[in-house]
Amino acid sequence: MFLKGAKGLLKKKETLKGDKMTVPKWAEGRVDYTKSKCIKCHLCVKHCPAVAIKVVKDKFIKVDHEMCIRCSVCTEVCPTKALVMKSE
Length: 88
Description:
Elements: H1 2-10, E1 16-17, E2 20-21, E3 30-33, H2 43-47, E4 53-55, E5 61-63, H3 73-77, E6 83-86
Antiparallel strand pairs: 1-2, 3-6, 4-5
């Protein structure tokens, strides 16, 4: 049983192609925030599965692009389209 587990650890990952990880097309962009369109409803903060959107001191939001998983849930729930996905 231990031998089977050890073989699984050494097996090449399916998400890797050669030495590079493949990134889906929808994940290549980043969330763009327009502060002037924001109405401070904070729906994006409530719905972000990666907890990548924080409320800052003036009750506007800040997107942490390092933590963002580019799922675009925040852009879908934003009523004023203050958050949109932009290609890099």
